[in-house]
Amino acid sequence: MLKIRFYIGFVFVLNSCMNTNQDNGFIVGENESICPKNHTDSIIPIIYGMPSEEMFIQADSGLVRLMGCEVSDNDENWYCKKHNISF
Questions:
Q1: Rounded to two decimals, what is the model's pTM?
Q2: Which is deepest, 18, 40, 55, 64, by most CB within 10 Å?
Q3: Which residue segment(s) compose the domain that 67 sits in?
Q4: Is residue 35 part of a domain?
Q5: Has residue 68 got a pLDDT over 60?
Q6: pLDDT tens digits for range 12-39
Q7: Which residues pair with 6 in a beta bridge?
């Protein structure tokens, strides 16, 4: 059950971010990646679930933000590095 939850959460986050624009090697949405403080720079995707070694490296480089393994329907998809907020 726990492994299924990780997988579903990871797919949920990726599906919510899908579009044709590329940013730091990730597919990002057009309207979803705007900070509540009204800017688009310093925004990175939030990844839920069990991270791979590559995800840890990307998180250390500031390309993604790793969150917990518990996934719900109202989790944030984006993180603003400038204002330290998730949305």
A1: 0.62
A2: 64
A3: 2-30+41-86
A4: no
A5: yes
A6: 444 444 333 444 444 444 446 899 999 9
A7: none
For range 60-73, the mean pLDDT: 91
Q: Tokens for 17, please give them.
A: 């971010």
Total number of domains in the chain: 1
What is the 3-class SS of the chain, one letter each residue? CHHHHHHHHHHHHHHHHCCCEEECCEEECCCCCCCCCCCCCCEEEEECCCCCHHHHHHHHCCCCEECCCCCCCCCCCEEECCCCEEC
Distance (Å, whole) CA 85 – CA 12: 20
Buried b (16+ CB within 10 A) or exposed e, 24-58: eebebbeeebebeeeeeeebbbbbbbebeeebeeb
